[in-house]
């Protein structure tokens, strides 16, 4: 099984922790954020690793991984970064943000879906925002779901009526990956030279969730792989300290 890990950004909100290393190489619990993620992947045989590098690329080294360069990482965003690995975007595959840690059970949920495209969605997302001031709930990529299908997803969705939070991990079958590539090509052809693509953002600065919403508008079915905790995002120093504390207490990320 293949995993595409989007790891080009610096992570400036981690402050001095990323002065000399990429965001995903920041250490928590004695190991890098990425090491925690890879451990969960390998527990389920996900070992065909593709990593998109940008900031301090030479310091992000994983034995056996295939690297894809995003030389324009300061000027683009997650969506453009993902498609720097365009030739590798064939399913079945998992795609993940590189600043999240999760348990093997979360990977199991993603791989167990019957959907061609499934977003891993935490239905207990409220708990991870208790006391989280540096990354408030307004920045959560929340989902609205109807009849088992994602209707809206992103930071603009808001808490009212939200099923849960997209954690930054998604599954694509062979067909789902093909639909992803086709949607990106259609969006690029239509919006690359326009001011706005989705949700007030240009195509150059779009999030992955912006493409998901574009796909939904085109009639693509996107489902969910629901979980209840078992993961954490590490976006700020506050997040880093919270996860470190939970590991010291020998708890999961629930």
From TrEMBL:
It comes from the Bacteria. GO terms for molecular function: nucleotidyltransferase activity. Keywords: Nucleotidyltransferase, Transferase. Transmembrane segments: none annotated. It holds the Pfam family NTP_transf_3. Residues 3-122 form the MobA-like NTP transferase domain. Signal peptide: none annotated. InterPro entries: GlmU-like, MobA-like_NTP_Trfase, Nucleotide-diphossugar_trans. This is Phosphocholine cytidylyltransferase family protein.
